[in-house]
Amino acid sequence: MTPREALFDADDHAPALPVCDHYSGVEARMRKSLELQGELGPVFDVTLDCEDGAPVGGEAEHAHLCAELIMSAANRFGRVGARVHPIDHPAFEADVDTLVRRAGSRLAYLMVPKPRGLADVGRACDEIDHFIRIHGHGRSIPVHVLVETHGALQEVGAIAAHPRIESLSFGLMDFVSAHRGAIPASAMGAQGQFSHPLVVRAKLEIAAACHAFAKTPSHCVVTEFKDLRALNAAATRAAREFGYTRMWSIHPDQVRTIVDAFAPTAAETDLAIEIIRSAQAAHWAPTRHRDTLHDRASYRYFWQVLERAHRTGQPLPAEVRQAWFDTPVG
Questions:
Q1: Angstrom distance (rounded) from CA 179 to CA 192
Q2: Confidence grade of residue 14 (pLDDT, cut at 50, 70, 90)
Q3: Is the pLDDT at 328 greater than 70, yes or no?
Q4: Any alpha helices (H) in the chain, and if so which ranges?
Q5: What 3-state class would DSSP assign to 165?
Q6: Which of 58, 96, 97, 100 is the most exposed place for a label (fewest CB within 10 A)?
Q7: CB-based contacts of 297: which residues, under 8 Å, 6+ apart?
Q8: DSSP bridge partners of 217
């Protein structure tokens, strides 16, 4: 029995998504993003952007391009998703139809932006499922939602509870703009977004809702994409203080920094291995490690540290990988 099987019920954990979600909408950059994923491995997702990436009047052609890339050999790991237009945009239905029909067999997820509340999320999920039934790929494509309006934040708990939702992201820029100048522009920066009370409140409510319903909270962008020191500080705070397990990247240079910030340290990984080994040897009964008592509650925490290490490509002893991560469940 693996630690995952011993410590958790089947429905008692969030999806094991990569810690970084990289957005790209221009063809050359989308192709480079897939090349980078091929180089680094599935430690980050690539989201092809049909909303901001599509030229006005060229929405249909852009959706077909995204579907082509998802189905191409460049998608080596099956970790490529797409952001569609908002539910009330004329291109929403065509985006979903094209992506599900042409790429539904390999599409990792669909990101739905700008819902005004639970009703919009429900409509979007119904439309997505309608095209899944029509095109018959035989799989349920996960749905991600971008929380960036007042209505979505007010109903964030209900949105997180929706059974079709896999992850919620925080849309910082639109959220600040929705306050009609009441939140200063500095709150969109790498430092200000962690100090303005309304922005901090939104981040915490999204993270808490996700954890309450075993969904993945994804942190917002850092627009100062060349300032990797500021990015590292923001990503570290998002992971260590705000409860986020995933973060957006908007430039290829940001990917490695985000993955490293969300990864456990070598010392944390080594401690987790020691504790889980002792727990397994004790058949998950309470144990003492360095004069500290541990039981199933702390075992679950330390196992999640190891899962995060594995998910971020951190080096693990060969026997740990083989025993706990390479063994098929069941």
A1: 15
A2: confident
A3: no
A4: 3-7, 27-40, 59-70, 92-103, 118-135, 150-154, 156-161, 172-177, 197-212, 228-240, 252-262, 266-281, 296-311, 318-320
A5: strand
A6: 58
A7: none
A8: 168
- Mean pLDDT rounded to a whole number for the chain: 95
CA 320, 326, 328, 329 torsion-angle sign: positive
Task: Find all residues with CB under 8 Å of 220, minimum gap 6, and list them.
Answer: 169, 170, 171, 172, 173, 193, 203, 247, 248
Q: Are 248 and 218 in contact (CB under 8 A)?
A: yes
Q: How far is CA 15 from CA 11, 19, 191, 198, 316, in A?
A: 10, 11, 29, 28, 21
Query: Residue 224 CB: number of other CB atoms within 10 A?
Result: 16
Is the distance from CB of 257 to CB of 248 less than 8 angstroms?
A: no
* 220-254 residue pLDDT tens: 999 998 899 999 999 999 999 999 999 999 999 99
Q: How far apart are CA 43 and CA 314, in angstroms?
A: 10
For β-strands 80-83 and 216-219, DSSP reports them as unpaired
Token pair recorded at residue 201: 């409140």
- Degrees, nearest 5: CA angle 281-14-22: 120
pLDDT digits (tens, 9 = 90+) for 200-219: 999 999 999 999 999 999 99
Contacts of 153 (CB under 8 A, 6+ apart): 147, 175, 202, 205, 206
Report, as an integer, the average pLDDT of 170-176.
97
